[in-house]
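Let us walk through a complete example step by step. Step one is to write down the protein sequence. Step two is to encode the small molecule, zinc ion, as a SMILES string so that its atoms and bonds are unambiguous. Step three, shown after the inputs, is the structure prediction itself.
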Amino acid sequence: MALDIAIRGGTVYDGSDRPPVAIDVGIAGGRIVAMGEVAAKAEHEIDAAGLAVAPGFIDIHSHSDYTLLVDPRAVSAIAQGVTTEVIGNCGFGCAPIGDPKLAASAIYGFDDSIKLTWRGIGAYLDRLAAARPAVNVMTLVPNGQLRLAAVGLADRPAAPGEVARMRDLLREGLSEGAVGYSIGLEYPAEVGCAEDELVALARESGRAGGFYATHTRNRAAGAAAAVEEAIRTARAAEVRLQVSHLMPRSGDAESRRCLDAVEAARARGQDIAFDMHTRLYGTTMLSTLLPPWSLVDGVAGLRAHLAASASRARIRSFTSIIASVGDWEKVVLLDVPGMPDVSRLSLAEIGRRRGRDPHDCALDILAEAGDGLHRPMVILNVMSEATQKLAFGHPLCVPGSDATTLAPDGPLAGSVFHGAYTWAAWFWRAAVREWRLLKPEEAVNRLTGRPAAILGLTDRGAIAVGAHADVAVFDPREFGERGTTFEPNQLARGMRHVIVNGALTLGDGAPTGTRAGAIIKRHGPALAF
Ligand SMILES: [Zn+2]
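Step three: the predicted structure of the complex.
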């Protein structure tokens, strides 16, 4: 048999948590067709002596919905061996679109360079396929867009007619290939969601064989109660639950309580798992400080509200992700385009420099940002290494980027999203090499076989004859991140070759220019996990 690619002499991890074996892997027609001692010659021979060979990594928590349209090369991800991304997380995403102006506020990385010309999930996925992404893509239906389309920015539970409208949009998205339903209850478009409204919608996802990915209502003090709400909602809706970035911003004890809630639900027989990003901090948009009503009349309206003392006081009283941290020293602005005087400083420090209350400084910066209102990002220094170890050592945890794909050159070169360049590389370096928390085969399983099972993928996430040839070949002693907090846009080190659907996408550590990703639509019910 003629092979397209042969990977010879590597240490092969099959994606389960079984120990590796030293065998060759043969690829033809986009599939793995031979394993063992492979005699047939290949068009492209890869010498993998001393290297690990694993299924391509699956990022179950990506926000690349828009960036893959802007730059489909996904260089930051490919350089880490990522071959599949799940988008539409945390209630954010590019479809369905009701009012395009409103919809932009629930799309990570939106910059208007690509106009929102589509409406439904199906049309969006067609548009994404036309962009030919380098990675495979699966999508969830994001609740933020459902709410914006049916309810707008009103901060209240949806009325029965609105719930029906959201349910129709969700059903349509699921029928057009989405693999589940996601919510982001801390975000302005969704803070008004009532629990029964979520049950009604989550049930639709379960009926369609999808899962329910939830960024809970409260990830600060009292976070465990919000995890309990997610568990209750999923149980009432009879849907599999994936808790997004489980560990909260409120310390180690609260993290333990969140994990206890997950374990108790699991012990009761509920189908539940969780993911975790790899940062010691949270990142979010500074604009999450703003209550929905303050944005109803756009930037001009916001400026008017901020100029009127009564409205400003109302805005200040809004319980936001950022304000809930409760310590402005821990809230640090990343580089803000056009505002070097505040970049890389904590709000507390900005307050000292401006002689003004830090919360007011943050609101001033948003007013100054004008149309770029959603661009300023902050990091919230709220995670400990102990919490990260607790999460990543847990058998129900899979890591995820919680970021967008980026590239050090091209239209996204100036964009920052922590985790984009570092997540899988960090996970390997920290969990396997530094902390020795996981054996290499366990870490591979968390990056491949386990997310594949959650997603119902039976022919990816594994090195097996017949599987799609998504493969990462890397130096296990070197694979790690180079990006840092303030210089994040640096490609990971140690990844040698990445194959997507049988096409060499990274060769000898360099992008080949090939973009062979597929849009993977839900087919059949997912596996239990
Ligand atoms: Zn989230």
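Step four is interpretation. The longest helix spans residues 160-175.
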